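User:
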Amino acid sequence: MKIFLTGATGYIGGRLAPRLIEAGHSLRCLSRSPRKLDDEPWARRDDVEVVQGDISDVDELADMMRGCDAAYYLVHSMVSAGGEYAEKDRRLARNFAKAAEKAGVKRMIYLGGLGEMGEDLSAHLRSRREVEEILAESTVPLTSFRAAMIIGSGSASFEILRYLVERLPVMLTPRWVRTECQPIAVRNVLHYLVACLDVPETAGRELDIGGPDVVTYRELMRLMQEERELPRRLVIPVPVLTPRLSSLWIHLITPLSSRIARPLAEGLKNRVVVQNHDAERLMPQRLLTCREAIAAALGKIAAANIETSWSDAGPIPTDPDWAGGKVFVDARSREVGASAEAVFTAACRIGGGRGYHSADFLWTLRGLMDRLVGGPGLRRGRRNPEHIAYGDAIDFWRVTGIEEGRLLELRAEMKVPGVATLTFEMEPRGESRCLLTQTARFKPKGLLGLGYWYAVLPLHGIVFHAMLAGIANEAEEHVTRAEAEAAAG
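Assistant: Predicted structure:
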């Protein structure tokens, strides 16, 4: 089949795409930022087409869908913001359904959430169900999957669980940790999403999907603690923890922001358990238990083999317009006794567990300050310790420019009164030397932005000088080791 796929740069879509290709389908992927797929081997295949756009224009979307047999709707923000958020989701779903009808698409597939509609259903889950209902009103048959918590390396809900258990020997939790849910491993979700294309009976149906275990969140914490071989965690449910307070606590303890954590925390109050088992009957597979799913996810993290992460999703802001406003620049250069490729590799290793070569306490302090005011801080880390690609998150930075052996550009996502970027450029000076230029730019917003720049200016001489020297030294040490190994061999 020819498949139209939205959300290919997101957590589920990024894993689904290569599996659809393995199943013999060709893809047309819609993305607001196609460059985020440049580093994906599957996106460079002849049977994959990446188109730039969004879901705001029905006619344009219909043109992009034409010729496709099936369309996956995997567009959802993990950030809920009251009625405005829900209305946007409804509008986009209507546009998608209308475009699918105009394009002659034969079927749609949607991944939503478990939970029965009612007054107690969280706003986040309610929005998921409303989207499902809007898509189902279309003349195009809809296959709707409803899942509870998805357990997989890099998923938002899994990362919250892991960090809470790893960092807190004693946990004060909402009373909702006693509520039952039926988690499912991400590999099982992906099997259903692919297999449904070959099972005509799944068209026009709502299918609940879950693993074999019905557990409470408290029991999931215990399983995580055992799989991580940690001492027993003391979990104390208290009635005073509201979703808002819980999300703020999650924000401080884990890499996720409170805006992402809140809908997940609100969802804990709803019992989300499979009501029909049609998916298991129509598309049989071995479903991983919660323990097996947690162990598999931890194994992927330990091997630095995380296919996609919650931090990958979201738009990439356009480069700031440096003309027409005051821009502060801190530029430093150093000639390095290594090739441009070696220096580029060293620059791409910053952040995460490696840190920033020096003054770690200053970076830690800056990350803590950022977390306290609602930013991502340093806890978001990076998906892979060695490799980065366009759109990747590195602590409180986002990769907004990358050219192999020549350039790495990071844009700050920390809470700052302005726009900040950090750029590394490599200019070859022969086979084994290059000029490394490190440039920090800051475009302030108002007087607060000006005050911020001058307040941190004295620290630049410490952190930026050390970072430049550290990258250069690492590249040169790599060359020295390579020469020593060659001589020994």
